[in-house]
Specification:
Number of strands: 0
Radius of gyration: 19 Å
Largest sheet: none
Distance between the termini: 37 Å
Structural class: mainly alpha
Shape: elongated
Number of helices: 3
Mean pLDDT: 90
């Protein structure tokens, strides 16, 4: 999800609940703690991952260099 997704406490709670349910289904220990760890990791990744607009700008820029430029 986009960075703004992680700014909503309700969405974070829903995601944590969903991930915890996934771990419960797998019968793993401490599903809520595991879910919180996963959500925290996703939040950290979202902070450094470029936004959709930044990715589009990067993909639409010239990225080729001639041998002279090297």
């Amino acid at each position: 999800p986009d960075k703004s997704y992680y700014e909503s406490p309700q969405k974070i709670a829903d995601l944590t609940s969903l991930v915890a349910y996934f771990f419960e289904t797998l019968k793993l220990s401490s599903p809520l703690d595991r879910a919180k760890s996963v959500v925290e990791l996703e939040k950290q990744i979202a902070q450094v991952f470029p936004t959709a607009q930044e990715r589009r700008e990067w993909w639409n820029t010239e990225k080729y260099w001639s041998q002279i430029d090297k």
